[in-house]
Specification:
Largest sheet: 8 strands, parallel, barrel
Distance between the termini: 36 Å
Oligomer: single chain
Strand order of the largest sheet: 3-4-5-8-9-10-11-12
Radius of gyration: 20 Å
Shape: globular
Structural class: alpha/beta
Helix content: 25-40%
């Protein structure tokens, strides 16, 4: 059997295979509310044959959005809009669906990528950003507001409230976004966190807020719903967050019941220097897996079936996540199964597309016609 297409459990959630559709921001929401674009986009991903679909970075407060068009889950309108989309998707797909909960911190209030992605000032429709320390992300940008005790409590509660909404929506998994330079990552990295209180300075202090958020979410979510973390394992900047600190964080999270680590990198500093190539982040996932006994998801320019198969077969990660490759080829898992001699699932409306050379690709199917 193909290792990539073997089942795996994340806590109490069983996945049919090791392929994850990674969270992919669509910048297509209306005041945080999912739209018909999300129905179209997620509908494609949900019939792809992957083992798990994770919804895009979803803001837990209005000021936590990356852009004004980000998906959100901070009020009843957001919840109802997402319920409509999920109802449509689930009508035609049994795939487990998770959600990534996020606060953008000092990287909030940005223009959409196709509009340049620059900071959006309040005068132009943006808002004031918050962060661990009053250090701007980019040169020439205004400093964010440093979070005080009340601000920290507001954001902790925002994660809890959004997690409760996710449970009400029947989502199967929660991923906390502590990567890519967003708020939780900003607390971890000494490049963005220069506080002198209990949330800054030492590694234990810089991890404190992330662990508090995790504990609060884990405590409010039923045991059947696994809670994991997306992290950047390195800032790619000297003196920043690094793989050894990531191991310490993952060990602490695992002790608290963290179900998985989804391992990415970078995003907290414009000074990062990344040598990008096929599977360039897989070694970071492997490093964490070697030192912490928890399932690890590898991501980053994983594009070929044989490449993904080798990552799992060689024990470098437990799952592989794809983003851009899934946008380019929403049937990537089908094509991977065909190349690896495995089976996957497809809706019956598509059974007739099964190639003659792969008659068992979709399992025991039967198509008749008068």
């Amino acid at each position: 059997m193909s290792p990539l297409f073997t089942p795996i459990r994340l806590g109490e959630l069983e996945l049919a295979n090791r392929i994850v559709v990674a969270p992919m921001c669509q910048y297509s929401a209306d005041e945080g509310c999912a739209t018909d674009w999300h129905l179209m986009h997620l509908g494609q991903m949900a019939i792809s044959g992957a083992g798990l679909l994770i919804l895009e970075a979803t803001a837990i407060t209005a000021d936590g959005r990356i852009t004004p068009q980000d998906l959100g889950l901070w009020n009843d309108a957001n919840e109802q809009a997402l319920r409509r989309v999920l109802r449509g998707v689930r009508q035609h797909s049994p795939m487990p669906i998770g959600i990534q909960l996020s606060h953008a911190g000092r990287k909030a209030s940005s223009r959409a990528p196709w509009d340049g992605g620059a900071l959006l000032l309040p005068a132009d429709g943006g808002w004031d950003c918050v962060a661990p320390s009053p250090i701007p992300h980019g040169s020439g940008e205004p400093a964010p507001v440093q979070l005080d005790a009340a601000g920290l409590q507001r954001i902790r509660q925002g994660f809890v409230d959004a997690a409760q909404r996710a449970v009400r929506l029947g989502l199967d998994l929660i991923e906390l976004h502590a990567a890519h330079g967003y708020l939780l990552h900003q607390f971890l990295s000494p490049l963005s966190n220069q506080r002198t209180d209990a949330y800054g300075g030492s590694l234990d202090n810089r991890m404190r807020f992330v662990l508090e958020v995790f504990d609060a979410v884990r405590a409010t979510v039923p045991a059947r719903v696994p809670v994991g973390v997306r992290l950047s394992a390195t800032d790619w900047v000297d003196g920043g967050w690094d793989p050894e600190q990531s191991v310490a964080l993952c060990a602490a999270l695992r002790q608290r019941g963290c179900a998985f680590a989804h391992v990415s990198s970078g995003g907290v500093s414009p000074l990062q220097r990344i040598s990008v190539g096929p599977g360039y982040q897989v070694g970071l996932a492997e490093h964490i897996r070697r030192h912490v006994d928890m399932p690890v998801v590898a991501v980053g320019l994983i594009t070929e079936a044989e490449q993904a198969e080798a990552i799992i077969a060689d024990g470098r990660a437990d799952l592989v996540a794809l983003a851009r490759a899934m946008l380019y080829d929403p049937r990537w898992p089908w094509h991977a199964a065909a190349r690896l001699g495995a089976q996957t699932v497809a809706p019956p409306q598509y059974w007739r597309c099964q190639p003659a050379a792969h008659k068992a690709l979709f399992g025991a199917t039967r198509v008749g016609q008068r």
